[in-house]
Design a protein that fits this description.
About 30% of the residues lie in helices and about 20% in strands. By secondary structure, the chain is an alpha/beta fold. Bound molecules: coenzyme A. InterPro entries: AcetylCoA_hyd_C, AcetylCoA_hyd_C_sf, ActCoA_hydro, ActCoA_hydro_N, NagB/RpiA_transferase-like.
Protein backbone atom coordinates (compact mmCIF):
# COMPACT_ATOMS: atom_id res chain seq x y z
CA UNK A 1 0.00 0.00 0.00
CA UNK A 2 1.26 3.43 -0.97
CA UNK A 3 0.60 5.13 2.38
CA UNK A 4 2.42 2.40 4.30
CA UNK A 5 5.44 2.79 2.04
CA UNK A 6 5.32 6.56 2.52
CA UNK A 7 5.10 6.07 6.31
CA UNK A 8 8.09 3.73 6.29
CA UNK A 9 10.09 6.12 4.11
CA UNK A 10 9.47 8.91 6.64
CA UNK A 11 10.49 6.86 9.70
CA UNK A 12 13.59 8.17 11.46
CA UNK A 13 15.14 7.74 14.92
CA UNK A 14 14.99 10.45 17.55
CA UNK A 15 18.73 11.03 17.04
CA UNK A 16 18.10 11.65 13.33
CA UNK A 17 15.25 14.00 14.23
CA UNK A 18 17.51 15.95 16.57
CA UNK A 19 20.16 16.06 13.91
CA UNK A 20 17.82 18.16 11.74
CA UNK A 21 17.93 21.05 14.25
CA UNK A 22 20.29 23.86 13.23
CA UNK A 23 21.69 26.86 15.09
CA UNK A 24 19.23 29.76 15.08
CA UNK A 25 16.20 27.52 14.51
CA UNK A 26 12.80 28.19 16.04
CA UNK A 27 11.17 24.96 17.23
CA UNK A 28 7.51 24.91 18.28
CA UNK A 29 6.17 21.89 20.15
CA UNK A 30 2.62 20.65 20.70
CA UNK A 31 0.68 21.58 23.85
CA UNK A 32 0.65 19.79 27.23
CA UNK A 33 0.05 16.03 26.97
CA UNK A 34 0.53 16.26 23.19
CA UNK A 35 4.15 17.35 23.63
CA UNK A 36 6.86 15.20 21.99
CA UNK A 37 8.44 13.67 25.05
CA UNK A 38 11.19 11.66 23.34
CA UNK A 39 12.43 14.62 21.33
CA UNK A 40 12.34 17.06 24.26
CA UNK A 41 13.95 14.58 26.70
CA UNK A 42 16.94 14.32 24.37
CA UNK A 43 17.15 17.86 23.05
CA UNK A 44 19.97 18.80 25.47
CA UNK A 45 22.23 16.14 23.88
CA UNK A 46 22.71 18.33 20.79
CA UNK A 47 23.70 21.37 22.89
CA UNK A 48 27.41 21.13 21.92
CA UNK A 49 26.61 21.56 18.22
CA UNK A 50 23.86 24.22 18.17
CA UNK A 51 23.56 27.84 19.29
CA UNK A 52 20.55 30.16 19.77
CA UNK A 53 17.76 27.66 19.22
CA UNK A 54 14.42 29.02 20.46
CA UNK A 55 11.87 26.50 21.71
CA UNK A 56 8.26 27.71 21.99
CA UNK A 57 5.96 25.53 24.06
CA UNK A 58 2.76 25.61 26.11
CA UNK A 59 2.09 23.93 29.46
CA UNK A 60 4.92 21.36 29.28
CA UNK A 61 4.20 18.30 31.42
CA UNK A 62 7.82 17.34 32.12
CA UNK A 63 10.87 19.33 33.29
CA UNK A 64 13.17 18.56 30.39
CA UNK A 65 16.93 18.90 30.96
CA UNK A 66 17.38 21.58 28.26
CA UNK A 67 15.51 24.09 30.43
CA UNK A 68 15.53 22.59 33.93
CA UNK A 69 19.30 22.08 34.14
CA UNK A 70 22.04 24.67 33.95
CA UNK A 71 24.62 24.71 31.17
CA UNK A 72 22.45 24.75 28.04
CA UNK A 73 21.70 28.48 27.97
CA UNK A 74 23.84 29.29 24.95
CA UNK A 75 22.21 26.55 22.92
CA UNK A 76 18.53 26.90 23.90
CA UNK A 77 16.11 29.52 25.07
CA UNK A 78 12.61 28.59 26.08
CA UNK A 79 9.57 30.78 25.47
CA UNK A 80 6.17 29.65 26.68
CA UNK A 81 2.50 30.56 26.33
CA UNK A 82 1.65 28.96 29.71
CA UNK A 83 3.84 28.32 32.75
CA UNK A 84 4.11 25.25 34.98
CA UNK A 85 6.15 24.78 38.21
CA UNK A 86 9.17 23.70 36.11
CA UNK A 87 8.98 26.80 33.94
CA UNK A 88 8.57 29.03 36.98
CA UNK A 89 11.83 27.61 38.34
CA UNK A 90 13.58 27.96 34.95
CA UNK A 91 12.31 31.56 34.67
CA UNK A 92 13.85 32.43 38.06
CA UNK A 93 17.22 31.35 36.72
CA UNK A 94 16.80 33.21 33.42
CA UNK A 95 16.20 30.13 31.24
CA UNK A 96 12.56 30.75 30.33
CA UNK A 97 10.43 33.70 29.34
CA UNK A 98 6.70 34.12 28.98
CA UNK A 99 4.71 35.04 25.84
CA UNK A 100 1.61 37.09 26.79
CA UNK A 101 -1.35 35.85 24.75
CA UNK A 102 -5.02 35.08 24.40
CA UNK A 103 -4.93 31.41 23.49
CA UNK A 104 -6.97 31.70 20.29
CA UNK A 105 -4.37 34.11 18.91
CA UNK A 106 -1.28 32.31 20.27
CA UNK A 107 -0.18 30.51 17.09
CA UNK A 108 -1.22 33.22 14.62
CA UNK A 109 0.55 36.03 16.43
CA UNK A 110 3.64 33.97 17.14
CA UNK A 111 4.04 33.14 13.45
CA UNK A 112 3.63 36.81 12.55
CA UNK A 113 6.55 37.55 14.87
CA UNK A 114 8.84 34.60 14.21
CA UNK A 115 8.96 31.95 11.52
CA UNK A 116 8.80 28.34 12.71
CA UNK A 117 11.53 26.11 11.30
CA UNK A 118 10.61 22.89 13.04
CA UNK A 119 7.29 21.72 14.50
CA UNK A 120 7.42 18.62 16.69
CA UNK A 121 4.26 17.00 18.05
CA UNK A 122 2.66 13.64 18.73
CA UNK A 123 0.13 11.51 16.90
CA UNK A 124 -1.78 8.29 17.27
CA UNK A 125 -1.24 5.44 14.81
CA UNK A 126 -1.89 5.87 11.09
CA UNK A 127 -5.09 4.33 9.67
CA UNK A 128 -5.37 2.41 6.38
CA UNK A 129 -6.14 5.63 4.48
CA UNK A 130 -2.92 7.30 5.62
CA UNK A 131 -4.52 9.52 8.26
CA UNK A 132 -3.01 10.05 11.69
CA UNK A 133 -4.50 12.05 14.54
CA UNK A 134 -2.75 14.82 16.46
CA UNK A 135 -4.65 13.22 19.33
CA UNK A 136 -4.75 15.53 22.34
CA UNK A 137 -4.43 19.02 20.92
CA UNK A 138 -5.32 21.19 17.94
CA UNK A 139 -4.92 24.41 19.94
CA UNK A 140 -2.33 26.02 17.64
CA UNK A 141 -0.72 22.96 16.09
CA UNK A 142 -2.51 23.12 12.70
CA UNK A 143 -1.42 26.67 11.97
CA UNK A 144 2.14 25.94 13.01
CA UNK A 145 2.25 22.78 10.87
CA UNK A 146 1.12 24.84 7.87
CA UNK A 147 3.82 27.46 8.54
CA UNK A 148 6.74 25.21 9.53
CA UNK A 149 9.62 24.19 7.25
CA UNK A 150 9.78 20.75 8.83
CA UNK A 151 7.07 18.71 10.57
CA UNK A 152 8.12 15.83 12.82
CA UNK A 153 5.60 13.72 14.72
CA UNK A 154 6.17 11.14 17.43
CA UNK A 155 3.71 8.35 16.67
CA UNK A 156 2.57 6.59 19.81
CA UNK A 157 0.16 3.62 19.95
CA UNK A 158 -0.92 4.71 23.47
CA UNK A 159 -2.32 8.04 22.24
CA UNK A 160 -6.08 8.26 21.60
CA UNK A 161 -7.29 8.75 18.04
CA UNK A 162 -9.46 11.86 18.07
CA UNK A 163 -11.47 13.51 15.32
CA UNK A 164 -11.73 17.06 14.06
CA UNK A 165 -8.80 19.31 13.17
CA UNK A 166 -6.48 16.72 14.69
CA UNK A 167 -6.78 14.59 11.55
CA UNK A 168 -3.63 14.87 9.45
CA UNK A 169 -2.50 12.93 6.37
CA UNK A 170 0.91 11.27 6.15
CA UNK A 171 1.68 13.46 3.11
CA UNK A 172 1.63 16.55 5.39
CA UNK A 173 4.34 15.14 7.65
CA UNK A 174 8.07 15.16 6.90
CA UNK A 175 9.29 12.66 9.48
CA UNK A 176 7.93 10.11 11.93
CA UNK A 177 9.61 8.91 15.12
CA UNK A 178 7.94 5.84 16.64
CA UNK A 179 7.66 5.99 20.45
CA UNK A 180 5.85 4.11 23.19
CA UNK A 181 5.62 6.17 26.39
CA UNK A 182 2.38 6.42 28.41
CA UNK A 183 0.12 9.45 27.94
CA UNK A 184 0.87 11.93 30.74
CA UNK A 185 -2.00 12.27 33.20
CA UNK A 186 -3.12 15.44 34.96
CA UNK A 187 -4.23 14.98 38.58
CA UNK A 188 -7.83 15.71 39.57
CA UNK A 189 -8.54 16.42 43.22
CA UNK A 190 -11.75 15.32 44.95
CA UNK A 191 -14.22 18.19 45.58
CA UNK A 192 -14.15 19.39 49.20
CA UNK A 193 -16.82 21.21 51.19
CA UNK A 194 -15.96 24.61 49.69
CA UNK A 195 -16.00 23.22 46.15
CA UNK A 196 -19.44 21.74 46.78
CA UNK A 197 -20.80 25.08 48.03
CA UNK A 198 -19.34 26.91 45.04
CA UNK A 199 -20.60 24.18 42.72
CA UNK A 200 -24.14 24.55 44.06
CA UNK A 201 -24.13 28.33 43.51
CA UNK A 202 -22.90 27.76 39.97
CA UNK A 203 -25.48 25.03 39.37
CA UNK A 204 -28.17 27.64 40.16
CA UNK A 205 -26.76 29.82 37.36
CA UNK A 206 -26.53 27.05 34.76
CA UNK A 207 -29.89 26.51 33.08
CA UNK A 208 -30.88 23.26 31.38
CA UNK A 209 -29.86 23.36 27.73
CA UNK A 210 -26.76 25.50 28.40
CA UNK A 211 -23.45 24.89 26.68
CA UNK A 212 -20.57 24.97 29.13
CA UNK A 213 -16.84 25.60 29.22
CA UNK A 214 -14.79 24.53 32.25
CA UNK A 215 -11.36 26.08 32.64
CA UNK A 216 -8.12 24.78 34.07
CA UNK A 217 -7.77 24.59 37.86
CA UNK A 218 -9.20 22.75 40.83
CA UNK A 219 -12.53 24.61 41.12
CA UNK A 220 -13.81 24.36 37.52
CA UNK A 221 -13.17 20.64 37.55
CA UNK A 222 -14.96 20.22 40.90
CA UNK A 223 -17.96 22.17 39.62
CA UNK A 224 -18.84 19.40 37.17
CA UNK A 225 -19.85 17.14 40.06
CA UNK A 226 -22.59 19.61 41.05
CA UNK A 227 -24.18 19.71 37.59
CA UNK A 228 -25.46 16.12 37.69
CA UNK A 229 -29.13 17.18 37.93
CA UNK A 230 -29.01 19.31 34.77
CA UNK A 231 -30.55 18.35 31.45
CA UNK A 232 -29.24 18.57 27.90
CA UNK A 233 -26.01 20.41 28.57
CA UNK A 234 -23.55 20.83 25.73
CA UNK A 235 -19.77 21.29 25.61
CA UNK A 236 -17.84 24.03 23.80
CA UNK A 237 -14.61 24.31 25.74
CA UNK A 238 -10.91 24.96 25.43
CA UNK A 239 -9.89 22.05 27.64
CA UNK A 240 -11.75 18.74 27.68
CA UNK A 241 -11.74 17.42 31.26
CA UNK A 242 -12.59 14.35 33.33
CA UNK A 243 -15.64 16.10 34.77
CA UNK A 244 -17.13 16.27 31.27
CA UNK A 245 -16.74 12.52 30.83
CA UNK A 246 -18.69 11.98 34.08
CA UNK A 247 -21.42 14.38 32.93
CA UNK A 248 -21.73 12.62 29.57
CA UNK A 249 -21.83 9.18 31.15
CA UNK A 250 -24.55 10.37 33.55
CA UNK A 251 -26.65 11.49 30.57
CA UNK A 252 -26.38 15.19 31.50
CA UNK A 253 -24.44 16.15 28.40
CA UNK A 254 -26.40 15.39 25.27
CA UNK A 255 -25.57 18.42 23.12
CA UNK A 256 -29.14 18.32 21.79
CA UNK A 257 -29.86 21.97 22.58
CA UNK A 258 -26.58 23.27 21.17
CA UNK A 259 -26.93 25.90 18.49
CA UNK A 260 -23.38 25.47 17.14
CA UNK A 261 -22.35 21.93 16.21
CA UNK A 262 -25.29 20.28 17.98
CA UNK A 263 -24.63 16.81 19.47
CA UNK A 264 -20.87 17.32 19.32
CA UNK A 265 -18.64 17.97 22.33
CA UNK A 266 -16.20 20.60 21.07
CA UNK A 267 -12.76 21.20 22.60
CA UNK A 268 -9.34 22.33 21.48
CA UNK A 269 -7.24 20.13 23.77
CA UNK A 270 -7.75 17.31 26.29
CA UNK A 271 -5.94 16.83 29.56
CA UNK A 272 -6.85 14.51 32.41
CA UNK A 273 -6.78 10.89 33.50
CA UNK A 274 -6.62 7.57 31.66
CA UNK A 275 -10.45 7.48 31.86
CA UNK A 276 -10.62 10.65 29.77
CA UNK A 277 -8.13 9.40 27.20
CA UNK A 278 -10.11 6.17 26.82
CA UNK A 279 -13.33 8.13 26.44
CA UNK A 280 -12.08 10.36 23.62
CA UNK A 281 -10.38 7.52 21.75
CA UNK A 282 -12.21 6.82 18.48
CA UNK A 283 -15.17 8.86 19.76
CA UNK A 284 -16.87 10.79 16.95
CA UNK A 285 -18.96 12.65 19.56
CA UNK A 286 -15.84 14.59 20.61
CA UNK A 287 -14.40 17.05 18.12
CA UNK A 288 -10.96 18.48 18.82
CA UNK A 289 -10.98 21.61 16.68
CA UNK A 290 -8.53 24.42 15.97
CA UNK A 291 -8.14 26.73 18.98
CA UNK A 292 -8.12 29.71 16.62
CA UNK A 293 -11.79 28.87 15.94
CA UNK A 294 -12.93 27.18 19.17
CA UNK A 295 -11.66 29.97 21.43
CA UNK A 296 -12.57 32.89 19.19
CA UNK A 297 -15.03 34.86 21.38
CA UNK A 298 -17.31 35.50 18.38
CA UNK A 299 -17.49 31.76 17.68
CA UNK A 300 -18.09 30.95 21.35
CA UNK A 301 -20.86 33.56 21.29
CA UNK A 302 -22.74 31.64 18.60
CA UNK A 303 -23.69 29.09 21.25
CA UNK A 304 -27.03 29.91 22.86
CA UNK A 305 -26.86 29.97 26.71
CA UNK A 306 -23.08 29.63 26.78
CA UNK A 307 -21.66 29.50 30.32
CA UNK A 308 -17.91 29.87 30.89
CA UNK A 309 -16.55 28.78 34.27
CA UNK A 310 -12.99 29.76 35.18
CA UNK A 311 -11.04 30.58 38.31
CA UNK A 312 -8.62 33.27 39.43
CA UNK A 313 -5.86 33.89 41.95
CA UNK A 314 -6.87 37.38 43.06
CA UNK A 315 -9.69 39.83 42.30
CA UNK A 316 -9.81 43.49 43.28
CA UNK A 317 -12.88 45.34 44.52
CA UNK A 318 -13.58 46.72 41.05
CA UNK A 319 -13.53 43.24 39.42
CA UNK A 320 -10.06 43.04 37.84
CA UNK A 321 -8.94 39.39 37.89
CA UNK A 322 -5.33 38.32 38.19
CA UNK A 323 -5.41 34.67 37.16
CA UNK A 324 -1.85 34.08 36.05
CA UNK A 325 0.66 35.75 38.36
CA UNK A 326 1.42 36.08 42.03
CA UNK A 327 2.48 39.70 42.14
CA UNK A 328 4.94 40.14 39.30
CA UNK A 329 5.88 36.42 39.29
CA UNK A 330 4.36 34.64 36.30
CA UNK A 331 2.45 31.61 37.62
CA UNK A 332 0.51 30.17 34.66
CA UNK A 333 -0.98 32.12 31.72
CA UNK A 334 -4.06 33.95 30.50
CA UNK A 335 -4.81 30.90 28.37
CA UNK A 336 -8.40 31.16 27.20
CA UNK A 337 -9.77 32.93 30.25
CA UNK A 338 -10.58 36.20 28.51
CA UNK A 339 -11.52 34.41 25.24
CA UNK A 340 -14.11 32.28 26.98
CA UNK A 341 -15.41 34.93 29.39
CA UNK A 342 -15.96 37.45 26.59
CA UNK A 343 -17.41 34.80 24.27
CA UNK A 344 -19.93 33.66 26.89
CA UNK A 345 -21.20 37.21 27.25
CA UNK A 346 -21.61 37.61 23.50
CA UNK A 347 -23.79 34.48 23.58
CA UNK A 348 -27.58 35.03 23.75
CA UNK A 349 -28.49 34.39 27.43
CA UNK A 350 -24.83 33.54 28.09
CA UNK A 351 -23.02 33.97 31.40
CA UNK A 352 -19.40 34.11 32.40
CA UNK A 353 -18.46 32.91 35.87
CA UNK A 354 -15.25 33.42 37.82
CA UNK A 355 -15.30 31.03 40.78
CA UNK A 356 -12.77 31.26 43.58
CA UNK A 357 -12.32 30.42 47.23
CA UNK A 358 -12.67 33.53 49.38
CA UNK A 359 -9.24 32.91 50.93
CA UNK A 360 -5.94 31.24 50.13
CA UNK A 361 -3.41 29.69 52.47
CA UNK A 362 -0.24 31.10 50.97
CA UNK A 363 3.46 30.68 51.61
CA UNK A 364 5.12 33.48 53.55
CA UNK A 365 8.06 34.51 51.34
CA UNK A 366 11.42 33.35 52.71
CA UNK A 367 9.91 30.96 55.28
CA UNK A 368 8.21 27.58 55.58
CA UNK A 369 5.13 29.17 57.13
CA UNK A 370 1.76 29.83 55.54
CA UNK A 371 -0.88 32.44 56.28
CA UNK A 372 -4.51 32.93 55.28
CA UNK A 373 -5.20 35.88 53.01
CA UNK A 374 -8.31 37.17 51.27
CA UNK A 375 -8.37 36.52 47.53
CA UNK A 376 -10.71 39.50 47.21
CA UNK A 377 -8.46 42.51 47.71
CA UNK A 378 -8.84 46.30 47.67
CA UNK A 379 -6.13 46.57 45.00
CA UNK A 380 -4.22 43.88 43.16
CA UNK A 381 -0.78 42.97 44.48
CA UNK A 382 1.93 45.19 43.04
CA UNK A 383 2.94 43.78 39.64
CA UNK A 384 -0.09 41.47 39.32
CA UNK A 385 -1.11 40.72 35.73
CA UNK A 386 -4.73 41.50 34.83
CA UNK A 387 -5.88 38.40 32.95
CA UNK A 388 -9.55 39.40 32.83
CA UNK A 389 -10.35 43.10 32.71
CA UNK A 390 -13.03 44.48 35.00
CA UNK A 391 -14.96 45.38 31.85
CA UNK A 392 -15.23 41.69 31.01
CA UNK A 393 -15.98 40.21 34.42
CA UNK A 394 -19.59 39.02 34.88
CA UNK A 395 -20.55 36.69 37.77
CA UNK A 396 -18.10 36.09 40.62
CA UNK A 397 -18.77 33.15 42.93
CA UNK A 398 -17.15 32.15 46.23
CA UNK A 399 -18.28 29.74 48.94
CA UNK A 400 -20.18 32.74 50.38
CA UNK A 401 -22.38 33.41 47.39
CA UNK A 402 -22.69 35.08 44.00
CA UNK A 403 -21.79 38.64 42.98
CA UNK A 404 -23.50 39.61 39.71
CA UNK A 405 -21.28 42.42 38.42
CA UNK A 406 -22.68 42.89 34.92
CA UNK A 407 -23.58 46.53 34.35
CA UNK A 408 -22.75 47.58 37.92
CA UNK A 409 -20.93 50.69 39.11
CA UNK A 410 -17.68 50.50 41.05
CA UNK A 411 -19.59 51.41 44.24
CA UNK A 412 -22.00 48.50 43.77
CA UNK A 413 -19.18 46.12 42.86
CA UNK A 414 -17.39 46.92 46.11
CA UNK A 415 -20.54 46.08 48.10
CA UNK A 416 -21.27 42.91 46.14
CA UNK A 417 -17.72 41.60 46.30
CA UNK A 418 -17.39 42.33 50.03
CA UNK A 419 -20.61 40.38 50.59
CA UNK A 420 -18.98 37.22 49.15
CA UNK A 421 -15.57 37.77 50.81
CA UNK A 422 -14.63 35.75 53.89
CA UNK A 423 -16.35 37.33 56.94
CA UNK A 424 -12.97 37.82 58.69
CA UNK A 425 -11.87 40.24 55.95
CA UNK A 426 -15.08 42.14 55.22
CA UNK A 427 -14.53 45.09 57.63
CA UNK A 428 -10.96 45.57 56.46
CA UNK A 429 -12.03 45.47 52.80
CA UNK A 430 -14.70 48.10 53.44
CA UNK A 431 -12.22 50.36 55.24
CA UNK A 432 -9.70 50.04 52.40
CA UNK A 433 -12.41 50.55 49.79
CA UNK A 434 -13.34 53.83 51.51
CA UNK A 435 -9.70 54.93 51.72
CA UNK A 436 -9.33 54.34 47.98
CA UNK A 437 -12.50 56.37 47.41
CA UNK A 438 -14.16 53.42 45.67
CA UNK A 439 -17.17 53.67 47.96
N1 LIG B 1 -1.97 35.21 46.44
C1 LIG B 1 -0.88 34.42 46.53
N2 LIG B 1 -0.90 33.10 46.26
C2 LIG B 1 -2.07 32.55 45.91
C3 LIG B 1 -3.26 33.30 45.81
C4 LIG B 1 -3.17 34.69 46.11
N3 LIG B 1 -4.24 35.48 46.03
N4 LIG B 1 -4.26 32.48 45.44
C5 LIG B 1 -3.74 31.26 45.32
N5 LIG B 1 -2.43 31.30 45.60
C6 LIG B 1 -1.48 30.18 45.55
C7 LIG B 1 -2.03 28.94 46.25
O1 LIG B 1 -1.73 28.98 47.65
C8 LIG B 1 -1.30 27.83 45.54
O2 LIG B 1 0.03 27.76 46.04
P1 LIG B 1 0.64 26.36 46.58
O3 LIG B 1 0.78 25.53 45.34
O4 LIG B 1 1.91 26.78 47.18
O5 LIG B 1 -0.38 25.83 47.53
C9 LIG B 1 -1.17 28.36 44.10
O6 LIG B 1 -1.34 29.78 44.20
C10 LIG B 1 -2.23 27.79 43.15
O7 LIG B 1 -3.50 28.02 43.66
P2 LIG B 1 -4.72 27.06 43.30
O8 LIG B 1 -5.95 27.72 43.78
O9 LIG B 1 -4.45 25.68 43.78
O10 LIG B 1 -4.63 27.05 41.72
P3 LIG B 1 -5.30 26.13 40.62
O11 LIG B 1 -4.46 24.96 40.32
O12 LIG B 1 -6.73 25.87 40.93
O13 LIG B 1 -5.21 27.13 39.35
C11 LIG B 1 -5.22 29.29 38.29
C12 LIG B 1 -5.75 28.40 39.43
C13 LIG B 1 -5.96 30.61 38.37
C14 LIG B 1 -3.72 29.50 38.43
C15 LIG B 1 -5.50 28.58 36.95
O14 LIG B 1 -6.86 28.34 36.84
C16 LIG B 1 -5.06 29.43 35.75
O15 LIG B 1 -3.92 29.43 35.39
N6 LIG B 1 -6.02 30.16 35.13
C17 LIG B 1 -5.73 31.00 33.97
C18 LIG B 1 -6.06 30.31 32.69
C19 LIG B 1 -7.51 30.02 32.53
O16 LIG B 1 -8.35 30.31 33.37
N7 LIG B 1 -7.86 29.44 31.40
C20 LIG B 1 -9.25 29.15 31.10
C21 LIG B 1 -9.44 28.22 29.96
S1 LIG B 1 -8.72 26.59 30.23
Amino acid sequence: MKVIEEYKRKLITVEEALDKVKSGDHIITALAAAEPREFLSNLHTIAPKVRDVTVTCCLPMVNYPFFSERGYEESFSLESWFYTPGLRAAHKEGRATFIPNHLHFAGTKRLQYKKCNVFVGTASKMDKHGFLSLSLSATYEREIIEGADLVILEVNPNYPRTFGDTTIHISQIDHIVEVNYPVPEFPNGQPDEKDIKIGKYIADLVEDGSTIQLGIGGIPNAVASQLMDKKDLGIHTEMFTDGMVDLFQAGVITGRKKTLLPDKMVATFALGSKKLYQFIDDNPGVQILNGKWVNDPYIIGKNYKMVSINTTLEIDLTGQCCSESIGHTQFSGTGGQADTAIGAQISPMGKSIIALYSTANVRVPGSEERKTISKIVPRLTHGAVVSLSRNDVDFVVTEYGVAALRGTSVRDRVKKLIAIAHPDFRDELLEEGKKLNLI
